[in-house]
Specification:
alpha/beta, 12 strands, Rossmann fold, 2 domains, 6-stranded parallel beta sheet, 312 residues, 10 helices, 6-stranded mixed beta sheet
Length: 312
């Protein structure tokens, strides 16, 4: 009798394992703080929903990411999730999956072919221009509270092959072009490739060249943290400088608490990761899913910092 029960349990486990969907996931990079939170959220959601995730690191190489997608197709995965290295390179990725009849979900970085995605393909992320709008407007408000009638800011942009970098920058510039904020001038903008060290280097170089910096608008928190470190090294008075990022990472929130960063824009990594896995499994199981799922950005300031203590 015991043998029969044990055999039944083993059989059930094997059956459940065999039924688990296999999702291939290719990430632009593993060595990025925000994308690590995103990746962990997908792993957790996959476990919760009974799916197996095969995770690959594209190491910021488009060719490697395309090869990973080809390998997913060849191995017959049930769905593919892509965090694109280059959002302008998503058309061939969509074609690979569509030709194989495999559902594909883009996550976090909006694909260039968003409006022409094939059947059973979707995007889960946030409306990038909104991040720039929130960041820029709060900076404008802070400058006004300081009594500024003129302000010079620099913009640290992400990888320009990513739509997020272009749209977040545009969002900031749109705000500064408004009548009530046009006293703010963007005097420098360069790409820091989303990296903290490059954010530090760029701001250090600008300061060394004698540039007066009243504010730093960064496309992400990593570069904002780097900028704050550069200004700290230069002996800057943080009460007279506005520094802002995007993502709501642990390091950025710690610097908001110490007054070295003024605000950041929360990007819900856990929500995006979970949403991507849910959409992938809906398609894989023959169900319907929204083609576009925008998860709102939220402003984080010293006043509401406690509300975001456990995020990202």
């Amino acid at each position: 009798m015991k043998k029969f029960v044990m055999a039944a349990v083993v059989g059930t486990l094997l059956s459940s394992s065999a039924m688990a969907e296999n999702i291939g996931v290719t990430m632009a990079a593993f060595d990025d703080n925000f994308l690590t939170v995103l990746r962990n959220a997908m792993i957790a959601k996959g476990e919760e929903m009974g799916a197996d995730l095969q995770l690959e690191d594209a190491q910021n190489e488009v060719g490697k990411q395309l090869n990973q997608i080809q390998n997913f197709v060849a191995s017959g995965v049930d769905a593919i999730i892509v965090n694109p290295v280059d959002t302008d390179a998503t058309i061939p990725m969509s074609k690979l999956a569509a030709d194989a009849g495999i559902p594909l979900i883009y996550v976090n970085r909006e694909p260039v072919n968003l409006k022409k995605l094939p059947e059973k393909q979707a995007y889960v992320g946030s409306l990038e221009i909104q991040a720039g709008n929130l960041q820029g407007q709060h900076a404008c408000d802070l400058f006004k509270k300081m009594g500024k009638t003129e302000a010079q800011v620099v913009v640290l942009m992400g990888d320009l092959s990513n739509q997020a970098a272009r749209l977040r920058t545009k969002g900031v510039e749109d705000v500064f072009a408004k009548d009530d904020c046009n006293f703010i001038k963007v005097v420098e903008k360069q790409t820091g490739m989303w990296q903290r060290t490059l954010g530090t280097d760029l701001v250090t170089n600008w300061l060394s060249a004698g540039l007066k910096i009243d504010g730093v608008m960064s496309n992400n928190d990593e570069m904002a943290v780097g900028a704050a470190q550069a200004l700290k090294n230069a002996g800057a008075d943080f009460d007279k400088v506005v520094i802002a990022g995007v993502d709501g990472t642990i390091d950025a929130k710690a610097m908001i608490e110490t007054g070295e960063i003024d605000h950041t824009v929360f990007q819900n990594a856990k929500g995006q990761g979970a949403g991507a896995v849910e959409a992938a499994l809906k398609f894989a199981r023959g169900e319907k899913a929204e083609a576009v799922n925008y998860i709102p950005f939220e402003l984080i300031t010293p006043e509401n910092l406690a509300e975001f203590a456990k995020t990202n």
